[in-house]
Write a structure and sequence with these properties.
Strand order of the largest sheet: 1-2
Oligomer: single chain
Number of strands: 4
InterPro entries: DUF6017
Strand content: 5-15%
Distance between the termini: 95 Å
Radius of gyration: 33 Å
Region (Disordered): 105-124
Domain DUF6017: 162-277
Protein name: Helix-turn-helix domain-containing protein
Structural class: mainly alpha
Pfam families: DUF6017, HTH_36
Helix content: 55-70%
Order of helices and strands: HHHHEEHHHEEHHH
Amino acid sequence: MAVFRVEKNKNYTVMSNVHLRDQNLSLKAKGLLSLLLSLPDDWHYSIRGLAKISKESPDGISSGLKELEKAGYLTRRQIRGEHGRMGQTEYIIYEMPRAPCEDSPCTENPVTAKPDTETPCTESAAQINTDKTNKDRSNTEMNNNRFISCQEAAEVRADEMRKERDAYRDLIRENISYDALITDHPDQADIDEIIEIMLDAVCSTKPFITVGGEQRPAEVVKARLLKLDCEHIRYVLSCMRENTTRVRNIKQYLLAVLYNAPVTISNYYGALVNHDLYGNS
C-alpha cells in the first residue's frame, strides 16, 4: 500500500520520540507534552491558558500535568515575587524523563547481625535540617499549586456561569419580544427587573425553588418561566400597577406572579371583559 507524506518545510516542531514511545504514558499525556514542547519558550504557561488552546477541560489539563510530573517529564515550582509573595508557577519541561532521586542515607554501612557501635552511621544535623527544609518547601509548593489550580478552576466556572446567564438572558428577551415591550412600556427598568428575577430562578443550582411560599422542583419552575411570552409579561406589569396592598418581598411576589401567569392570565382578562360588559349596566 502506498504511503503519502506531507512535505514539511515550515511551521513544524522537532522533538524527541522518547515520550511518544513511552508505554507508561497515556495518550492524553503524550499529546499534552507534545503541545508543551511546541510552544515558544516565552509562552505563559497556565492550566487555564492550556485549556483555552485545546478542547480539554481545566480538570483534564491538570490531570495530564500531574501524570507528566509523576513520570519525570515536568517540574513546577512557585516563584516568589516582590516582598516575598508567591507569584506565578514556573514550568520546566523535559524531553527525556528525569530519573527519580536515588539518594538514601546510611547506605554505606548496612545493618548486620552485630552492628558496629564504634563507628555508627549517623547523619549530620545540617543534613537533617536541609532535608526537612526541602520537604517543607516541597509541601508548601504543592499546597500553593493546589490553591492556584482550585482558583483557576473557580475562575473558569464563574466564567461559564456568566456565559450561561447571558445566553438565558438573550433567550428570555427573545421569548418576550423585549424590543417591542420596552417600546410600549414607559419604564424599561421594570422589564429588566423581571428578566433578572427570571434569570435567578432559571440559573439556580438548587433542586427546589420557593414560589408563593411553597417548595417547587427547580426544573418545573425553569420550564414554566421559559415558556412566558410578551403577553404574560404585560399581564405581570398590569398586576403590579393594580396591586394596592403592601408587598414585603417584591422579588418573591413577582416570581409567584410570573410562575402562575400561564394559568391565571385567561381568568384575569376574562374578568376584565365581564366587568366592561356588565359592570356598568
